[in-house]
């Protein structure tokens, strides 16, 4: 699943094998290789056949196992190195989790193999290999793969996460991640802003040594802009969510595939002819709508933004108000990053069997709290699937308790996550190695040169060959032959 992580980075440029990036220049510039360099992959501890790859997918893992009901907080666990600075579901799952990570890393011989992720845990191992000391906790109570968390704990990474945490567990894990003796973070990598919020609330002194925050989600970025507007942001922050490589790849292509995966795994729904409303037509909404329409679903959109609404109309979708169509819908999907997008009143008006899920962020888009009332009955029918039963017998199917469907109920495309993880790593490197004064106490976007560099690292996987500008063409366009090719305002 996605990550919230504090980092202690070395006071030197990151370097691993033949791969080196250095931003700590006296001049205000970044230099990148024109073409991706090669980096050797870690040799696998075993040869993994295609059949074992199928058998050990994250969907068929220990993650949903309920054989041990003891809370991880009540266990005394030690890895084989005698280290106990972690809290996971079961450290004995480490070997199985190591195989998961190896599967994620195999199959690519170029630089992107280093960043090739199924869960974001591979990113953590990459940062450790580059010299960082990390403490890790999950940003979602359902997104952790227990066996992979155990594998990281076995290597000595302090991990505080397991699948199915309670709200109290969630904040306890964040506190354990932050509150430790003899260790001081100097970077924060966050997804959703909860870690950053907790540090501001409980341990503001930590920011005395923190050089920057890297945030990947729309919700977390919104919280950072609120801090900045209020004059309370005390360190530079990098907005990865609005980078081109995040918006146009992770948000669009990842959600286009994982929405179908999540709905199929949890409900076995047939999409043909189903009435589906998607709330929000940003990049996430676009990905969901494209996938659902391709399988024959009848899709309509709700939007607040006239530009996005017009795009939806031009793409062949009907733009409606949720209150006008709620009674006819078979599936309701939120993709906004906002709160109370689906209210209790609208839930009351849904028809029997309507499926409700969230692809946006956090658990605020659907008013789940209002469903925990005496007159309604909750019935858990399978993992991450609850039937909410009204007094008249009507049932609404709620997935992942209103949390992110693709992180809680399905796997996500590893290649797309590789792009996002590379963007996050470069953002950390840029903030950490930036000369004093380059970044103020504000929120910044990733420089376009780095966006293009991330894309160039992944092109060899498709055997893609870029056309080069001639000197005359570059002069005519007013561009450097090596980029950046897009202006800073390009989204």
TrEMBL record:
InterPro entries: Adenosylhomocyst_ase-like_sf, Adenosylhomocysteinase-like, Ado_hCys_hydrolase_NAD-bd, NAD(P)-bd_dom_sf, S-Ado-L-homoCys_hydrolase_CS. Pfam families: AdoHcyase (PF05221), AdoHcyase_NAD (PF00670). The keyword NAD applies. Residues 251-412 form the S-adenosyl-L-homocysteine hydrolase NAD binding domain. The gene is ahcyl1. This is Adenosylhomocysteinase-like 1. Residues 32-82 are annotated as: Disordered. Residues 45-64 have a biased composition (Low complexity). GO terms for biological process: one-carbon metabolic process; S-adenosylmethionine cycle. Its cofactor is NAD(+). One of its GO terms (cellular component) is cytosol. Keywords: NAD, One-carbon metabolism. PROSITE patterns: ADOHCYASE_1 (PS00738), ADOHCYASE_2 (PS00739). Binds 1 NAD(+) per subunit. Belongs to the adenosylhomocysteinase family. The keyword NAD applies. NAD(+) binds at residues 282-287, 303, 406.
